[in-house]
Design a protein that fits this description.
single chain, mainly alpha, DNA polymerase, domain 1
């Protein structure tokens, strides 16, 4: 009967519980030099942990972080705020992977996730009025006042 060798390193998890998340959070905060960064990331990670633990999740992976991004967008937060919060979650995934709590493949998927540049679509940024109408408004505004 053949025996399998047991690896010395335990298998990485896909579902992280509160103690795992807190351990990774502490590693993130200790890796930051600036107090303002520690405060900002600490707040962002606490909010993510609250959201993540609020209902059962299948795994801490890219899909869950996409759901979190959608949750943040539904709160009508500024794109820069969403970027900071997602950066903190990416850093959390990196630290969890670095300590062996999360598989490197899952962490890589989370780290590749980027947020939207703005809250509006490209279609909303384009002014669809006819060019002549826009030009006439510019000319009217630039004409001198008659007294």
């Amino acid at each position: 009967m053949a025996h399998r060798k047991k690896s010395k390193r335990s298998k990485a998890k896909t579902i992280l519980r509160l103690p795992d998340l807190e351990q990774s959070k502490n590693a993130v905060l200790h890796s930051l030099a600036a107090a303002s960064s520690q405060e900002s990331y600490g707040h962002a990670i606490d909010e993510f942990i609250g959201w993540y633990c609020s209902e059962p999740r299948l795994a801490f992976n890219r899909t869950v972080v996409l759901r979190y991004r959608f949750f943040l967008e539904q709160k009508n937060l500024a794109p820069s705020t969403i970027n900071v919060r997602l950066a903190a979650v990416r850093r959390l995934a990196y630290e969890a992977s670095d300590t062996g709590l999360l598989s490197p493949e899952l962490a890589a998927g989370i780290r590749r996730l980027r947020s939207k540049a703005s809250g509006r679509s490209d279609w909303q940024l384009v002014d669809h009025r006819p060019i002549k109408e826009l030009a006439s408004r510019i000319i009217v505004r630039q004409s001198p006042r008659q007294t």
